[in-house]
Structure formats: C-alpha cells, structure tokens
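Table S2 (text version). Query chain:
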Amino acid sequence: MRSDQKFVTAIFNELFDKNLQQYVESLSKPFNNDSDPYAKARNALAALSDEAKADVFAFFKVIIADSASVILGALDGVHFPDDIDGEFVVAYDGEEVQGDLMDIFIEKAQENSVYG
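Corresponding structure-token output:
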C-alpha cells in the first residue's frame, strides 16, 4: 500500500470505525436530564423512531466525510478555504503524501456507501 493510501486509510478508519461508533453509542443511551451537548442531542434523538435515528446517524457519515474532505483538499492544494492560500507539504515517514489525499478519501467513502 502506498504511503498516501496508508495515511488516508488510517484517517478514514479513525473517523468511521472509532469516532462515529463512539457518537452512535453515546447518543443511543437512554434519555436523561443532563445538560451537556451529548445529552441534549441524545434527548432530541430519543423522540425519533429507530429508523429515523438510523437516518440521522447515516447523515453523520456525510458530515464526517465532507469535513475530512475539506481538510485533505486543503492539504492537497485543491481546496482553498478563506485566508489559506499557501502550499502545504505533508510527509509520512519521510515521504511526501499530499496531492491525492482528498480523492483517495472520497473514493474510500464511496466504496463504503457513505453517501448513500
């Protein structure tokens, strides 16, 4: 596996296999009277059917993928957020890896049905 693919795969797995699962688990807990952001979201979701909750969690995947794509696109030099107009050099284990990070990530997201 090329270094850029290894980098993107690690990021993808962290976001979707770990972070997303933590969100789903935390937001699937029973209703309570806590006031932290997780509790507020969990309590709002408690009013939904299981099917509607699944739809919301599926949309989380799109949010995660779009957010990661913005960052990877900026590192690749193909997406330019306001006030970021310089070039980045991203290296993994001494090898430059930027250039196709966003494309690799989006391809991986499509392979994993993130967008539906």
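Notes on Table S2: The two ends are 27 Å apart (CA to CA). The chain has one domain: 3-111.
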